[in-house]
Amino acid sequence: MTTPIMPKSDAAELIVAARIRQGLSWSDIADRIDAPVVWTVAALLGQHPVPVDKATIVCELLGLGEGVIESLVRQPTRVADESVATDPTIYRLHEALAVYGPALKELIHEEFGDGIMSAINFKVDFSRRADQDGDRVVITFDGKFLDYRW
């Protein structure tokens, strides 16, 4: 009898639990698979397919089985989860884009012309910056400009 492939959300829960129980940071895992940390977290939470060699390393590191590897390598279905949008951290990111999105759109058009920033040909970086008024969260979006062509 053939069993279904584990849903990506189930694999993500196993990965998170194993990471916490083993005291590993996301950066530790990203370093082991030689991948950017933000991409690594997104992929292991189910938002990207993971190359089989990287999935194997993650599962060996975390003591997880073949079922998780099978799940990780699959193409995800990327949909907005409304329940996640109410998390305070994610909500604040939505809020920041709601406030600054129109201004960034205007600036992109002024600087580049008629087009958009790709979220497919895209890099994102995250860092912490010390500040006398409290540490700052620095998030950098780096997307290829795609011009509208007629």
UniProtKB/TrEMBL annotation:
The active site is at R92, E95, S118. It catalyses: cyanate + hydrogencarbonate + 3 H(+) = NH4(+) + 2 CO2. Its EC number is 4.2.1.104. CDD domains: Cyanase_C (cd00559). Residues 79-150 form the Cyanate lyase C-terminal domain. SUPFAM superfamilies: Cyanase C-terminal domain, lambda repressor-like DNA-binding domains. Keywords: Lyase. It is an enzyme of class 4 (lyase). One of its GO terms (molecular function) is cyanate hydratase activity. It comes from the Bacteria. InterPro entries: Cyanase, Cyanate_lyase_C, Cyanate_lyase_C_sf, CYNS_N, Lambda_DNA-bd_dom_sf. Signal peptide: none annotated. Belongs to the cyanase family. Catalyzes the reaction of cyanate with bicarbonate to produce ammonia and carbon dioxide. This is Cyanate hydratase. It comes from Gordonia hankookensis. The gene is cynS.
